[in-house]
Amino acid sequence: MQVNLLEFWPKILEATNETLVMVFIALVLACLIGIPLGIALVVTRDQGLMENRPVFNTLNIIINFFRSVPFIILLVAILPITRFIVGTSIGTAAAVVPLVFFSGPYIARLVENSLLEVNKGVVEAAEAMGASTWQIIYRVLLPEALSSIVLNITIATIGLVGASAMAGFVGGGGLGDLAITYGYQRFETDVMIVTVILLVILVQIVQTLGNYLSKKLRRL
């Protein structure tokens, strides 16, 4: 028996709001972790501004480890950590923890790639003018790579939207949880279709906004 979508709409709106909250909070926290890690990877690598092979190798291994674990496995593997941090392993707040563990290292790699695209001549010119390492990072590397970083973070955000849907398998809330509870377990096809459409619309909005901001920043 199919549900009445008009009566079911409040649940859909609530699930959409939960997805937006999960993605936003996880993205902010992941950026706070991933951007500094990405910078550290660039400046500590061979011939970097602060070359330090032990630090680079350690960060490289840690980031590769988390990136190699599929999200659905990571979701279950860090349940004890999730319970320790938020006091529960289900719900929107609990879903944020594995989302951050999943997307933080990914953003670090994306930021690393963006910074490595900066023309070395610009960095060398700043060094010749006597700029300190931190001045080069914040006044040369980051501004020059900002457009690319925005585009890459857009990609990471879309990945978060997909991962937030997978969090529904363990009661993470949001559209994924709604799709699994009603669309899969109860065979409510209408609910499944609506949640998929909403996720597609959300991804399109994020990508369009990211493209627009990246283009604007490239003109500066």
TrEMBL record:
Pfam families: BPD_transp_1. Keywords: Cell membrane, Membrane, Transmembrane, Transmembrane helix, Transport. Its main location: membrane. The chain crosses the membrane at residues 20-43, 55-78, 84-108, 149-171, 191-213. It is a multi-pass membrane protein. The keyword Transit peptide does not apply. Residues 16-210 form the ABC transmembrane type-1 domain. PANTHER family: ABC TRANSPORTER PERMEASE, TRANSPORTER, PERMEASE PROTEIN, PUTATIVE-RELATED. This is D-methionine transport system permease protein. It comes from Tenuibacillus multivorans.
